[in-house]
Design brief:
The complex is a heterotrimer of chains A (114), B (284) and C (383). The longest helix of chain A is centred in the last third of the chain and has 15 residues. Chain A is an alpha+beta fold and 114 residues long. In chain A, 32% of the residues lie in helices and 12% in strands. Chain A has 2 domains: 75 residues, Alpha-Beta Plaits; 31 residues, no CATH class. Chain A is built from 4 helices and 4 strands, in the order E-H-E-E-H-E-H-H. Chain A has a two-stranded antiparallel ribbon. Chain B has a single domain, classed as Rossmann fold, CATH 3.40.50.970. In chain B, the strands form 2 sheets. Chain B has an 8-stranded mixed sheet with strand order 2-1-3-4-8-7-10-9, with helices on both faces. A two-stranded antiparallel sheet of chain B has the order 5-6. In chain B, helix 2 packs across helix 8, helix 5 packs across helix 6 and helix 6 crosses helix 7. The longest helix of chain B has 15 residues. Chain B is globular and about 65 Å long. Chain C is an alpha/beta fold and 383 residues long. In chain C, strands 2, 3, 4, 5, 6, 7, 8 and 14 form an 8-stranded mixed sheet that branches. A 5-stranded mixed sheet of chain C has the order 11-13-12-15-16, with helices on both faces. Chain C is globular, with a radius of gyration of 21 Å. The mean pLDDT of chain C is 97. Classes of the chains: A alpha+beta (114), B alpha/beta (284), C alpha/beta (383). The interface between A and C is medium-sized, with 12 and 16 residues. Bound molecules: thiamine diphosphate and iron/sulfur cluster (2 copies). The site of one iron/sulfur cluster (SF4) has 13 residues of chain A, from helix 1.
């Protein structure tokens, strides 16, 4: 783990889907990387934005304290690739269930017919 | 490469039912941090351990914790999680059975099952999420509400003393005990890891922030960040607490690993020994 | 090993145990209570011999949850209790129903309310067995009237609970539990035992509460640890087991299936016995211990030239309207003797739609009806 400033991280992603705007990440960050966005996103949340990426020391404290699994420090391409793999292997196989759910809602179930 | 629109953290992608997320907890609720502690413990324990794990929970905000894990989980009745878990462990002794309960769930309505599971020393990992009140029902007094605190059922201040879970369970016969807060992220995760590996009844109390009710009613701190600061301020490590007087410890949260003993027989093993004995005798 | 084929002299409580073991029961959790204690006692001795698990729980709230937990651990499981314990189990029973957990619950009825008549029989719980837990659901309830029936129905109860993934309640009473009678145990291969169906699709394709084909009312049930990531959810859920909040359409689907899977299969679930009904003008409709004295009275009545017959209900719930209607359309009057203040008689009245006069013959205080009492009632309505 690097603790020097300016070693650079590729990105800090904050999810629109998951972030609820509690700002525990901002509280947890010792290096003042974040600021609160001026704009509300489509869920009505003013998300934290990593405006000072160059200050990030890769300590990941923001990740640890985010209760909503909404934020991730992505250090480099390597990590991005690993994330993609995890998504393919663990998450993707289950996603057709969402369509199945919608289908049930739309088409109904046999025991309610007649 | 990733769109922020529907991004989930690595742990969520790997272990959680992302199709039903975001979870239903309030913004800043510590239950999400407890979820993460559990998942990080498994990240270190490895996939084999995860595959042979099952979750059981009671009713309360805290009972929702395991429902987001892509794993077998039973969301039982208020207070009854340990009874279900005991039988599950007996039926499938190879499973790691992890039980998540609230403070009211475990020490209030479920108190009887709690002390008896500890007395039997069943190989379960009980994670008790304490927020100092009943939150799913909207902020009423629980067995851990501080004396004097106002809640929706103690409008004139709480007159009831608290349970000290660590002392209660030590007396009852538990064999691994620890208490942390959501502020003590790494320590709690390590204790969870130890507890899963421990053979016998292990309980970890995690005091977590409920900004919505405990924050507003008990502490006057509706912001989760202030509650985290408060946890940092009032928690006292066990070693230091031993040198402090009861007066000094008033209003403090003593944290640490309270007990780790290996001298008591574990219940599931005993039950299977009985079966062996009965079968050897061949009936009569 | 299970009981040798042949004839054995047994108490009703023992017959429960031996029947359960033959049916494949390998888990029992319970709490001592008269007059069901002997079931727990014998289970504690017999189950370990066949590799099963016995646990004496701290209370009945825990017992029923333990039985549910063991069922999801892949074992056929049961508990046994009486009045006060049955009341404590009602919430857990609801949990078994909404999560479609097979289990068998034996309630050896004693007199109530409350601690009540500890050592005396009653049939006071017939409505509680149907409606005791809150909310909308259907129940399967069986009432044995001899030790042989206790044995047979215990096996049947396990089969029904596995077939419909629903708890099945056996309503015995103190008399049946403690009386000793010969029980004929057939050779094992002649006994039908229904085994639990496990899913045969990969976990990602398994939808825990969606039976896909019409008529297939329940889905196969994996155990914990089989890799299916099931949610055993007490909160109202959709077909995936996901909590649904206020989605009333999903709740409607779930509640109706829980109801229909039982009520629409009433023809398959219902068991009854008919005695001398062919030309009867007066019918006695009875169940459990009451059916024993009733049958005697019906025979006496025949000797006196009264055309009496009897319908013995073995399945109490789902209530078999069709059969009762058929009887009502054929006779002048129906007598319903029960060891309570008149409970199933309401169902009989409802189902007979005024086609026959219905008379309730109540009995409380812990005594069986005397056959003369039933006979007197038959005479009265036959006039
Ligand atoms: C038998 C029963 N009584 C009452 C309730 C209502 N109830 C639901 S959650 C809850 C309290 C939860 O408090 P706690 O266990 O501390 O968990 P938290 O919500 O604080 O995490 C109560 C009283 C219930 N579900 N079942
Ligand atoms: S901690 Fe998580 S949920 Fe809270 S503001 Fe930061 S990213 Fe959003
Ligand atoms: S009420 Fe409290 S415990 Fe419940 S989700 Fe909200 S913050 Fe968390």
């Amino acid at each position: 783990m690097y603790m020097k400033p300016g070693v650079g991280v590729k990105d800090i992603i904050v999810s629109d889907k998951l972030c609820k705007g509690c700002y525990l990440c901002i509280w947890a960050c010792p290096w003042d990387v974040f600021e609160i966005s001026k704009e509300r996103n489509w869920r009505g949340v003013k998300k934290p934005v990593a405006v000072r990426l160059d200050q990030c020391r890769r300590c990941r404290l923001c990740e640890f304290y985010c209760p909503d699994f909404a934020i991730q420090v992505i250090i480099d391409e390597e990590e991005e690739k690993m994330l993609k793999e995890v998504e393919e292997k663990y998450e993707k196989p289950w996603l057709p269930r969402v369509e199945e759910r919608d289908r049930i809602v739309k088409e109904g179930v046999w025991w309610l017919e007649d | 490469m990733f769109s922020e629109r529907d991004f989930e953290h690595y742990l969520a992608k790997k272990y959680m039912r992302t199709e039903i997320m975001p979870h239903a907890f309030c913004p800043g609720c510590g239950l999400g941090i407890i979820e993460r502690m559990i998942l990080m413990a498994f990240e270190e324990l490895g996939e084999e351990e995860w595959k042979r794990t099952a979750f059981v929970s009671g009713i309360g905000c805290s009972g929702w914790v395991p429902l987001y894990f892509r794993r077998d989980a039973a969301h039982t009745l208020h207070g009854r999680a340990l009874a279900f878990a005991t039988a599950l462990k007996l039926s499938k002794p190879d499973l790691n059975v992890i039980v998540v309960m609230g403070d009211g769930d475990s020490m209030g309505i479920g108190g009887n099952h709690l002390i008896h599971a500890a007395r039997r020393n069943v190989d379960l990992t009980a994670i008790i999420a304490t927020n100092m009140l009943y939150s799913l029902t909207g902020g009423q007094m629980s067995p851990t509400t501080p004396q004097g605190a106002r809640t929706n059922t103690t409008p004139y201040g709480n007159i009831e003393p608290n349970f000290d879970l660590m002392k209660l369970l030590e007396a009852a016969g538990a064999t691994y005990l620890a208490r942390w807060t959501t502020y003590h992220f790494v320590q709690a995760k390590n204790s969870i890891k130890k507890a899963i590996k421990h053979k016998g009844f292990a309980a970890i109390e995690i005091v977590f922030q409920c900004p919505t009710y405990a924050g507003r009613y008990i502490l006057g701190k509706p912001d989760p960040r202030d509650m985290m600061d408060w946890f940092k301020e009032v928690s006292v490590p066990l070693g230091k607490a031993k040198t402090m007087s009861p007066e000094e410890l008033q209003g403090k949260i003593v944290v640490g690993e309270f007990l780790h003993r290996t001298d008591r027989p574990e219940y599931t093993e005993q039950v299977y020994k009985i079966i062996e004995k009965a079968q050897k005798k061949g009936g009569r | 090993m299970s009981l040798e084929p042949g004839v054995h002299l047994m108490q009703g409580d023992e017959a429960v145990v031996e029947g359960a073991i033959i049916a494949g029961c390998r888990f029992f959790a319970g709490y001592p209570i008269t007059p069901a204690t002997e079931i727990a006692e014998r289970m504690s001795y017999r189950l370990p011999q066949v590799g099963g698990i016995f646990i004496q729980m701290e209370d009945e709230l825990g017992s029923i949850l333990a039985v549910i937990g063991a069922s999801w651990g892949g074992r056929k499981s049961m508990t046994a209790t009486s009045g006060p314990g049955f009341s404590l189990m009602q919430e857990g029973l609801g949990y078994a129903i909404i999560t479609e957990t097979p289990l068998v619950l034996v309630n050896v009825q004693r007199g109530g309310p409350s601690t009540g008549l500890v050592t005396l029989p009653s049939q006071g719980d017939v409505m509680q067995a149907r409606w005791g837990s809150h909310g909308d659901y259907a129940s399967i309830v069986l009432a044995p009237s001899s030790v042989q029936e206790v044995f047979d129905l215990t096996i049947k109860a396990f089969n029904l609970s596995e077939t419909y993934r629903n708890p099945v309640i056996i309503l015995a009473d103190e008399v049946i539990a403690h009386v000793r009678e010969p029980v004929k145990v057939p050779p094992l291969e002649e006994i039908e035992v229904v085994e639990r169906k496990k899913p045969d699709v990969p976990p990602e394709q398994y939808i825990p509460y969606l039976p896909k084909k019409p008529g297939e009312w329940v889905t196969p049930m994996p155990a914990f640890g089989d890799g299916y990531n099931v949610l055993v959810e007490s909160v109202m859920h959709d077909e995936f087991g996901h909590r649904i909040g206020t989605d009333h359409a999903a709740a409607n689907r779930t509640i109706r299936r829980l109801w229909y899977k039982i009520e629409k299969n009433v023809d398959k679930i219902s068991m009854y016995e008919e005695y001398m009904l062919d030309d009867a003008e007066v019918a006695v409709i009875s169940y459990g211990s009451s059916a024993r004295t009733s049958l005697r009275a019906v025979r006496e009545a025949r000797k006196l030239g009264i055309k009496a017959g009897m319908l013995k209900l073995i399945t109490l719930w789902p209530f078999y309207d069709k059969k009762v209607q058929e009887v009502a359309s054929q006779v002048k009057a129906i007598v319903v003797p029960e060891m309570n203040m008149g409970k199933m008689v309401r169902e009989v009245e409802r189902a007979s739609k005024g086609m026959a006069e219905v008379m309730s013959l109540t009995k409380v205080g812990g005594l069986l009806h005397h056959p003369d009492e039933v006979l007197a009632a038959i005479k009265r309505v036959a006039r």
